[in-house]
Amino acid sequence: MRRRSVVLSGGGGGRQLTPSSSSAGLLDETGRSAGRTVFPTDARCYRLLHEIGSGVSAVVYRAACLPLDSSPVAIKSIDLERSPAGLDDVRREAKAMALLSHPNILRAHCSFTVGSRLWVVMPFMAAGSLHSIISSSFPVGLPEPSIAVILRELLCGLSYLHAQGLVHRDIKAGNILVDSDGSVKLADFGVSASVHDSGQLSSFSSSFLSDMAGTPYWMAPEVIHSHVGYGVKADIWSFGITALELAHGRPPLSHLPPSKSLLLRLTSRLRLDDAQNYNPAGGEAEKKKKAKKKFSKAFREMVASCLSQDPSQRPSAEKLLRHPFFKGFRSPDYLVKNVLRAVPPLEERFEGPSAADGSGRWSSFSPKRRRVSGWNFCEDAFELVPVYPEESLQRVHSGEDEEREMLIKDSLFVLLGSLGVQAEMAMKVLQCHRGKEGIVERLREEREKQLLGFAGSLEKTVGDLSSELQREKKTNFELQLELERLTDKQQQ
Amino acid sequence: MKGLFKAKPRTPAELVRQTRDLLVYIDHNWNTREAKREEKMTELSRLIRELKSILYGNSEAEPVYEACAQLTQEFFRENTLRLLIICIPKLSLEARKDATQVVANLQRQQVHSRLIASDYLEANRDLLDTLIFGYENIDIALHYGAMLRECIRHQSIARYILESEHMKNFFDYIELPNFDIASDAFATFKELLTRHKSTVAEFLAKNYDWFFAEFNQNLLSSSNYITRRQAIKLLGDMLLDRSNAIVMMRYVSSKDNLIILMNLLRESSKSIQVEAFHVFKLFAANQNKPVEIVTILAANRSKLLRLLGGFKLDKGGCQFIKHA
């Protein structure tokens, strides 16, 4: 590759650039130079060992960095062709991860592209995410002292993040990683947003981040009401939900489909026992056993304060750290002895994608197409016959499955692309025929019909929900009566 | 208010002066005793954070116009901005981030409805050179990059960089191996070529030959997927902008350009294909197509139709080709 004025020096992978006029060599905890290990930005320097997680457009591997004595790393490989986030979002995440430096925040060693994938090289957190720890070994939740250790570490990271003007927007057990020494780090800045980056002179309290992001069960009411705009306090809500998740093994309302849980969130208050009251899977006996699980008053108060409907009523991360619940906190060592010992190794927990991942199912829908193998640029003479080299036809036979998968992917993207084009066309048509009411009318009619459909389905859900609410209220009332009777008896 | 009980609350201007004194000290006495330096650095970091909270506000208070104006005026009255930029590599990571936000914010502060940052930068253009060369230093690239993007909000500053030799450096920075730095450089490059329409049109007209030669060869034909994907999108944005109509006509009249675009159409990446189509259709739609372009389009007509048919794009595209 051609390099004109960029001087490359140092660092095995040719990564380190010479500081131009600085004395960066003197730095210690500051930047990425001196004192810090430089990780190579070349895929050949890493050996992928095992898949330890996967999402819609990303896979996470345990890997070894060969030039650094095969030291363990985690590599998140993001498929940029399939990533729902635009390149700008990916850039923002990479930048956020490169500029954060805190013991409770997972920082990237480096990131670079490999074909159409982005590799983000990160420290390997041997014990995996809390979600995987809970689901493999603590299905009904962790004991309270361990929760306190984890939440305290998490708050330290969160408080740092918020001081930076960053909102994480996706706090949940699945994004909290634990290392074999019990250290806890917050990860995955896929949806994080900066309150400073948003264009105008914005300040902390008046920041308006109005796009939807996050995972439904952990989402704060004002994120759902996205027109209100939300700030760092949305993370505090998710923090509270995460506390419940750790306590009960699942977030509250998770027995409902995500969209329903969103609506319910807007109308009701969550309590600490919400998560345990609903247990669709377990039988009566198990329910009773679980209901006995007791939590301290400090813990319940702490969580309740985070789950206040009014964001301004929620304490800041800084303030939460001073809450009595975290008094006399234990060191991460405690986690090693009380949690990690019970957990199987990461590789055994993760089940890679099975062979039947549905690609066969879809293949019948995609039309077969011959790929264009080359253009004819008439460099020498007029050659009007298109060229179809033999090998491209042969490949169709040899790698049929691969081809099929590509075709599915392709057709999906084509669909996406053509939608955009159609929208553009429609706009043009509209502009040309501003006078012709007919088209406009038709479009409006169509839109209205769609809206009516939406409204209808919404109405139905609201109806369902309110009847559910009524039922709840009734039981609540009965319980209250019962309680009163009991207290009366006691007094007597 | 916190300041109420302090002996003497410092005014924004005083804060700036203290910051400047410390910067001067650190710039000149870097090799002093470590303990002493440490102490000064801590104080400096604290001051920069305080400046930041005046400009952005904090969890308790919104920024106050008068305080911001006072701070801005004092900042540009002497060489504080220069000192701060030069000292960035010596600051801790947190202080660097604060300083970056301070510098970014100052670009938008108006004093007596004037952007005095713009005047200052025009008189100190070498600072922009420093910021651009920041891309060559992995430790400060993202900080200088963010400052630079704020500076080119000023049209005259963007014009200076467009017309400087540094424009050529961006073609290398965009291909740096570190994704975070390379993509930051691209963001700046894109901003330079799209933000100020009239300046961009003027630049492209004057520098057409070398610029598009570099663009075609190093970006559109890069071996790096990200570079190609970002570049083809940017090319579309530039050519489809009405203010660049003349440049667009010139671009779509070249056979070499058409070849590059048709090769991008064949990419396995749908994102690249779709963006390439948006540029390709301009070649086909051109009313005065040169003969060689007509010839190529005619020679590949059936293949193009098949490809575009697969795209399920609009009929318009196909009609263009039938005209060819």
UniProtKB/TrEMBL annotation, chain A:
GO molecular function, one term: protein serine/threonine kinase activity
Presence of the UniProt keyword DNA repair in the record: no
Keywords tagged on the record: ATP-binding, Kinase, Nucleotide-binding, Serine/threonine-protein kinase, Transferase
EC number(s) reported in the record: 2.7.11.1
Binding site for ATP: 76
Family, per entry: Belongs to the protein kinase superfamily. STE Ser/Thr protein kinase family. STE20 subfamily.
Protein's recorded name: Mitogen-activated protein kinase kinase kinase 3
Uppermost EC category: transferase
From TrEMBL, chain B:
One family name in Pfam for this protein: Mo25
Listed GO MF terms: protein serine/threonine kinase activator activity
Single GO biological process annotation from the record: intracellular signal transduction
InterPro entries: ARM-like, ARM-type_fold, Mo25
Domain of life: Eukaryota
Family: Belongs to the Mo25 family.
Record-linked PANTHER family: CALCIUM-BINDING PROTEIN 39-RELATED (PTHR10182), OS07G0585100 PROTEIN (PTHR10182:SF12)
This protein's name: MO25-like protein
Organism: Apostasia shenzhenica
Taxonomic classification: Eukaryota, Viridiplantae, Streptophyta, Embryophyta, Tracheophyta
